[in-house]
Structures are given as structure tokens and as C-alpha cells.
Write a structure and sequence with these properties.
Layout: E1 2-4, H1 29-48, E2 52-53, E3 56-57, E4 59-62, E5 67-70, E6 73-76, H2 80-101, H3 104-108, H4 111-127, H5 130-136, H6 143-168, H7 174-182, H8 188-208, H9 210-216, H10 218-226, E7 233-236, H11 238-241, E8 247-249, H12 262-265, H13 286-297, E9 305-308, H14 310-313, H15 323-344, E10 349-355, E11 362-363, E12 368-379, E13 386-392, E14 398-400, E15 404-406, E16 414-421, E17 427-436, E18 439-448
Antiparallel strand pairs: 1-8, 2-3, 4-5, 5-6, 7-9, 10-12, 11-12, 12-16, 13-15, 13-17, 14-16, 17-18
Bound molecules: iron/sulfur cluster (2 copies).
């Protein structure tokens, strides 16, 4: 006795890998999880650029000043080890996830995937569901279809411009940028960059989509070598699903897969997970959700497609915590600890002192000898600062020059003179103190004198 399965079956040829993929949106646990991760990330991306601390952006890659403003602190070329630490921590996190759970980063948090899902949603609002879009692909263009296509592209272009302006706002303060754009004062370089970013977003998320994941993403390349038989990745349980059949036999000779093709239709990369682990799978879990709805309908246990390892599928022992995973976790934790420690001892003020190269010293009058210097300050806090200068170490010495250095003068060489009364030793150590609201930095230099 054969039983017809109540699942809508769509011509799978319209979802062939080489043709345009019309992704069918589905619902389920992993789609909720993906939204729970991707919406906050999108909001952070669009909001963070507007946040300020003491009038300075929270995050700004300020290459014109050779610094990065990061949550109230400022990183400069001096802090390259810190930046390297942050990058190593990020890479270890990616490796850790890849060894443990495959390409979950790609499926749930990668900007390419998040933007692609947003563009697919827009496509569905304007042109209809995947099967309608697939049908319309080969139909002649009529007025309504043209209108819907134009609306889709206008929305895509608007979202791309919004993305590009926000992205540029991480390099040029966003308020300045937006004001320049609205007053037509943005330079050709800025406009060129914005256009480039908008076009790239439109192409990546609108037109090229999964081909970036398949052919251009370097992460997908090295992930292949990181997987092993214990990696929990999206897998089809062949033992349970085969032999697949669209009609289930009552004698139990058919597997649980009813060959409905839903898992292929919802796949953003257009693959059939039933063919086994594939490099193109970004572990988004859409096929799991789709297949679970089918299993519910046919009253079979969920999880025909699920996150599991090769060993689990073959019913072999499959520990999650193996030496490689623990190793990456240790590297991650160690690097994070080093970065936190590095931030606590970060340079807040850099002072450079140069002696006048023209003369070692000069005699001001019978009793006084002077040395000339150049001072340069660089502030590595994000807020504006001013420092008060004083001198110590040589009892009769006085400092001549601007005793208060304001933010505007940072980064410039400023002239100073130290004078002291005779008799003086040929070389003395002089301390220059830079103070600001309880913060004090002392820099030593040499004072040269010859008593005649
Ligand atoms: S694996 Fe599940 S979703 Fe895919 S064809 Fe079989 S029953 Fe349908
Ligand atoms: S096979 Fe499943 S998990 Fe992999 S990309 Fe396609 S839908 Fe996502």
C-alpha cells in the first residue's frame, strides 16, 4: 500500500545549480536563530557609526591622522601588536568554529550571507515567492512584471547606497560625510569610493550572491582542510533517508526522504545536501528547517538533515572536544587575555624630544647657559587633551616656551629652551613633566654646558 506524501513539489530543474537560483524562504529553528544573530549585527553596523564618546566616534579608522578610535581609546602605529592580537583572536575564533561546527560563521554571521538574505527578502516582497520568480524568468516582460522588477532594483540600489555611506562613515566621520553629501561638498575621491562600495554591495548581494561563497571567499578554501570526521556540520542521514521515494511504502522498505526537493529549493547555494558534504554548503541550516517541516507532516522524527559529524552518522564515537578544538580555544583565550592586558598598558601619550642640531648650547649672558629643543606630542586617547609642562632635575633650570600644549598643536614640532645658572656640570639629566588631570608622563633629556 503506497501513501502519497502531502508536500508541495516544485520542478527542481528551476533550481539547477548553473542557472539562477531562486531561493525559497523557509521557517524553523535555524532561521529564527539566524535572524536572532543577523538582525542585531545589522543594527550594530548601521548604528555604531553614529555613536560618540566625548564628541569622538566610537569606532573610526582615521587614516588621515594615522589612528583608529576604538570605544573611547585611540590606537596608532604604536599599537600594531594590539591590532595583530585582535586579528589573531578573530582568526582563532573562525578556526575554532570551523573545526567544531563547519561553516556556521558563513551561514549565520558573515556579512555576505546577511546582506544576501536581506536582498532575497526584498526580491520576495517585490516579485513574489521563489516558484513565481522561477516561472517568470522565462516569461515575456509585461507592465506589472516590469514595475516589480524596477521596484526591486530601486530598493536594492537604495539599500546598497545606505550600506556604502555607513561603511564609509567608519573611515570619515559620518556626520561630516552626510553633511558634505547633502550640501554637495563631498570630494571626487569620496564620491568615487561611495559609488564603488554601493556597486560592490549591489553586485555581491543582488546578483553574484553564492558565487562569492563558492569561488571568491578565502575562508571557504581553508575550511576544507579543517573539517574532520568529528566536525558537526549540516549532514543528510543516508541510513535513515534512503532509499528515497516520493511514495512511502507501508512495508517500511522506503527511507524517510520523500524526495520532495524542498531542501534544495531553500538552499542559498543551490546544492543538494543529500549528495554528501560539499564545499558549497555554508551551514545555514535552511535545509534542516525545510526537511523538519516535511518530517512533521509525514509524522517521522525530525533530524533527517541535522548538524552532526560523519562519525555520528556512522554511529561511531564522536567526541566534540578533541585536541585540535581545545588547541584553537586555548589560542583564542590566550590572545584575548593578551589583548585585554595590552589595552590596560596602552600608550596614552607619546612624547618625542629632539635637541637642537645646530649648537650644543649657547651662552645667554655671563651667568646663564641655554639649550634648545623641539618637542612633539601625540595623544592616543580619543578625547581632546591639553598638557601642562614643567621641569625638574636641575635646580636652577627654567623652561621657556609654550607651557600648555593644546590638542591643535599635537603632532607638530614645537620649539623650547631650557636655561640654567652657572656653575653647571658638562652634562646634566633634566626631566620634562607632561601633566593633565592626574595623568603625568616624565621624559628625560640631556642638558649640556661648558663653564668658561
Ligand atoms: S531530505 Fe527532506 S526535504 Fe530533502 S528531499 Fe528528502 S524529505 Fe524532502
Ligand atoms: S545545504 Fe543546507 S545548510 Fe548547506 S547551504 Fe544549503 S541550505 Fe544551507
Amino acid at each position: 500500500m503506497m501513501q502519497k506524501i502531502p508536500v508541495q513539489i516544485i520542478d527542481a530543474s528551476t533550481f539547477a545549480v548553473d542557472s539562477k537560483i531562486h531561493v525559497r524562504l523557509t521557517e524553523g529553528f535555524f532561521q529564527h536563530l539566524r535572524r536572532l544573530i543577523s538582525w542585531p549585527l545589522l543594527c550594530i553596523y548601521f548604528a555604531l557609526v553614529w555613536l560618540q564618546v566625548d564628541g569622538q566616534p566610537w569606532l573610526l579608522f582615521d587614516f588621515s591622522q594615522r589612528r583608529i578610535l576604538l570605544f573611547g581609546t585611540s590606537l596608532s602605529w604604536h599599537d600594531l601588536p594590539l591590532l595583530a592580537g585582535i586579528m589573531i583572536a578573530g582568526t582563532s575564533l573562525l578556526f575554532f568554529m570551523a573545526v567544531g561546527w563547519g561553516r556556521v560563521w558563513c551561514g549565520f554571521a558573515c556579512p555576505q550571507s546577511i546582506w544576501t538574505w536581506v536582498f532575497i527578502r526584498i526580491e520576495q516582497w517585490t516579485e513574489g515567492r521563489a516558484n513565481i520568480r522561477a516561472r517568470q524568468e522565462n516569461q515575456p516582460l509585461n507592465g506589472s512584471l516590469l514595475l516589480r522588477r524596477i521596484s526591486k532594483h530601486l530598493l536594492w540600489v537604495s539599500f546598497s547606497i545606505f550600506t556604502a555611506v555607513t561603511f564609509t562613515g567608519y573611515f570619515i566621520p559620518i556626520r561630516e560625510l552626510v553633511s558634505d553629501l547633502f550640501t554637495w561638498q563631498a570630494g571626487a575621491g569620496t564620491l568615487g569610493w561611495l559609488t564603488c562600495m554601493a556597486v560592490l554591495t549591489y553586485l555581491n548581494a543582488g546578483l553574484v550572491r553564492e558565487k562569492i561563497c563558492l569561488h571568491a571567499c578565502p575562508y571557504s578554501r581553508f575550511q576544507g582542510v579543517m573539517f574532520d570526521d568529528q566536525t558537526r556540520t549540516v549532514s543528510y542521514d543516508k541510513n535513515r533517508g534512503e532509499p528515497r521515494s516520493s511514495k512511502r511504502s507501508s512495508d517500511g522498505s522506503s527511507g524517510d526522504c520523500v524526495d520532495c526537493g524542498l531542501c534544495v529549493q531553500v538552499c542559498p547555494t543551490g546544492i543538494d545536501i543529500r549528495n554528501g558534504l560539499q564545499a558549497a554548503c555554508i551551514d545555514c541550516g535552511a535545509c534542516i528547517d525545510a526537511c523538519d517541516t516535511v518530517m512533521e507532516k509525514i509524522q517521522r522524527p525530525k533530524g533527517l538533515i541535522r548538524f552532526c559529524s560523519e562519525d555520528q552518522l556512522e554511529k561511531r564515537s564522536s567526541p566534540l572536544w578533541r585536541p585540535r578544538l581545545v588547541g584553537y580555544l586555548l589560542v583564542l583565550l590566550t590572545t584575548c587575555a593578551a589583548v585585554v592586558y595590552g589595552f590596560s598598558g596602552k600608550t596614552e601619550l607619546l612624547v618625542e624630544i629632539r635637541r637642537d642640531r645646530g649648537a650644543l648650547f649657547h651662552q645667554l649672558n655671563e651667568e646663564t647657559i641655554c639649550n634648545r629643543y623641539l618637542f612633539k606630542l601625540e595623544n592616543f586617547r580619543s578625547e581632546r587633551q591639553q598638557f601642562h609642562l614643567s621641569i625638574s632635575g636641575l635646580p636652577t633650570a627654567t623652561l621657556e616656551g609654550n607651557k600648555t600644549i593644546k590638542q591643535e598643536s599635537f603632532g607638530q614640532w614645537l620649539p623650547y629652551r631650557i636655561c640654567a645658572l652657572k656653575p653647571l656640570p658638562p652634562r646634566s639629566e633634566v626631566s620634562i613633566n607632561f601633566q593633565n588631570n592626574g595623568f603625568k608622563l616624565t621624559k628625560n633629556t640631556t642638558f649640556i654646558a661648558i663653564n668658561r
